[in-house]
Amino acid sequence: MPELPEVEVLARHLRCRLRGKVIQKVVVCRNKVLAGISESTFKRWLGGSQFVGLSRRGKYLLFSLRRARNGRPFQMLGHLGMTGRMYLAEPDKPRPRHTAVMLGLGRLNFIFEDTRYFGRLTLDTKPLKALGPEPLADDFCPHQFRAALSRSRQAVKVKIMDQRLVAGVGNIYASEALFRARINPRKPARCLTDLEARRLWKAIRQVLAEATERGSTIPLDFAGERNADRLFYFGGAGARAGSYKERLRVYDRAGQPCLRCRSPIQRVVQALRSTFYCPNCQR
Ligand SMILES: [Zn+2]
């Protein structure tokens, strides 16, 4: 599943390629992804509009556009959900089977493809209001983070995935950050010491920054044609074994030796999601 680093890398990849492009054609194949915006409204706003910018907020892509008629700026929100991918393709290629939305940009098509349709491409930007601070920005304050943890009875792994606490920490990097901070994922958030909370705050920033860095420096196949799992760059099946192992120290490594102490990595289920950790390093 794409998380913050994957979305950041995608935003950087698409930003310069989309800038200045005018939407000449809008095809909606699955209106579920419009999240309540009607197909006719979506088409009316997008048709003839120009892409002027692209940023990321948490795991959301925020497209800035300008309307054809009056030049008025507006925003479109994108989310990859579990299996979504957004990329540019040659217009003469057949439209992929799971295309949710296609935007014709002249010599290229913007494709939003999603096999499970949990992703979003919508004019409804309300979900942004519920997001906490951006983990890599200065407004992610260690003191506020610590205070929020101390008020929560939830397991720390579950709590750090709360998007109101900090935006964009998902299942994979939650496990990775807790391993790096040497904190047991099942420990109640309010039982963390000041030192542990500080280590975790730092670890969240480090794992996200490093993954973004790595994603920015390796050649990626955004259309994912060579990736068996159909995710745009991160994933088990299609990824080269070496790069995958290097990237993730505990996630999806149940039974394999801890890279720090050689104890077998364990998998537990928390809030219906898999958590991976080293019982020896993360007591
Ligand atoms: Zn260990």
Could you give a short account of the major beta sheet?
Answer: 4 strands, antiparallel
CATH superfamily of the largest domain: MutM-like, N-terminal
Strand tally: 10
- Quickly name the level 1 CATH class of the largest domain: Alpha Beta
**Beta-strand content bin:** 15-25%
| Number of alpha- plus pi-helical segments | 7
Helix share bin: 25-40%
What's the average pLDDT? 91
What order do the strands of the largest sheet run in, or round the barrel if closed? 1-6-7-5
Globally, the shape reads elongated
Based on CA atoms alone, the radius of gyration comes out at 20 Å
- List low-pLDDT spans: 227-233, 235-239
Bound molecules: zinc ion
Number of domains: 2
Distance between the termini: 28 Å
Which architecture of the largest domain does the CATH hierarchy give at level 2?
Alpha-Beta Barrel
N-to-C series of helices and strands: HEHEEEEEEEHHHHHEE
Alpha-beta classification: alpha+beta
Stated plainly, the CATH topology of the largest domain is called: N-terminal domain of MutM-like DNA repair proteins
